[in-house]
Amino acid sequence: MKLELEGKIALITGAARGIGKGIALVLAEKGADIVINDKKMNFEGEALATQIKAMGRQTMLIEADVSSEAEVKKMFTLIKNQFGRLDILVNNAGTSQPKDIFESSLEDWKYIIDTNLTSCFLCSKEAMELMAHQRYGRIINISSVVGERGALFGHVHYAATKSGMLGMTKTLARTGAPLGITVNAVAPGIIETELLFKTHGAEGVEKLSTSIPLGLGKPRSIGLAVSYLAGEGGNYITGSVLDVNGGMNMR
Ligand SMILES: NC(=O)c1ccc[n+]([C@@H]2O[C@H](COP(=O)([O-])OP(=O)(O)OC[C@H]3O[C@@H](n4cnc5c(N)ncnc54)[C@H](O)[C@@H]3O)[C@@H](O)[C@H]2O)c1
Asked: How many angstroms does the Cα of residue 178 sit away from the middle of ligand 1?
């Protein structure tokens, strides 16, 4: 039996670890060939590629900083040369700093805006050109619960990027609709990754988890939500925000 995403090419940014890795594994499990992007691939990216190849899928590793226009353009040229198309783009690469407005410099602000939001603009622009030509595409932006309700403390730049992604998602959904491209966002709550422990510390994470009805989330849960939007289930969904937060924020 044909797998749901068989024959589809998916690019996941920031996929060497954490949520991106979880998304890559689920999309591969559902049949997609995977382009793994990360700024720092290290052994983690290589190990992920080996794991995905063992599932019988093709993979491509591209080390690139997605906040750089030149590096994004180079990455898309490599994808076009290798596969000739791109069906699914997941804008996942992102980072944060636990700083409030008094502690944040303009340099901090620009770094987080470029990493989280400019990257989404640059990759979506390249992808939509390819997808418009194909008359098919699925773009999924990894926003955050913070983009919906603001951060509880600090993370002023991060909150701005995650809300910004929601505005971009809805706008690109309207641009993409007549071209066969859907654009949606997934808003994770608190997911166990390196970024979470780096920005909140073990004690902070413990405190946060007690207030979530379903406790802490796993990268795989985000992967499953992305695969739904990328698969047949998502064929009439665009401009939406899918909350995957264990009941942390009920709208
Ligand atoms: N962990 C959470 O609780 C949580 C909650 C909501 C949203 N998110 C979002 O999910 C996404 C992934 O977060 P995570 O927790 O897995 O983080 P992580 O730090 O564990 O992984 C992020 C990956 O992105 C890569 N990356 C960073 N900047 C990059 C760049 N400029 N170009 C290419 N790659 C880059 C990193 O090298 C890393 O491998 C982020 O956008 C984050 O905002 C995370």
From this structure: 31
The answer to whether the CB of 197 is under 6 A from ligand 1 is no
Question: In the prediction, which pLDDT does 207 show?
Answer: 87
Specify the CATH number for 9-244; select among 3.40.630.30, 3.40.50.720, 3.30.70.100, 3.40.50.1370. 3.40.50.720
- 33-38: strand order across its sheet: 59-63, 33-38, 9-12, 88-91, 137-142, 181-188, 241-244
| 158 assigned to active site | yes
Task: Note the pLDDT of residue 100.
Answer: 95
Mean pLDDT, consecutive 10-residue segments, the chain of 251 residues? Answer: 96 98 98 98 96 98 98 98 98 96 98 98 98 98 97 94 98 98 98 89 89 96 98 98 97 87
Distance 236 CA to ligand 1 centre (A): 28
| Beta-bridge mates of residue 138 | 88, 182
Catalytic residue among 111, 136, 158, 236: 158
Q: For a substitution probing ligand 1, which of 38, 65, 242 has the most ligand atoms within 8 Å of its CB?
A: 38
pTM of the model: 0.98
Read off φ and ψ for residue 132, nearest 5 degrees. -65, -40
H/E element, 112: helix 106-113
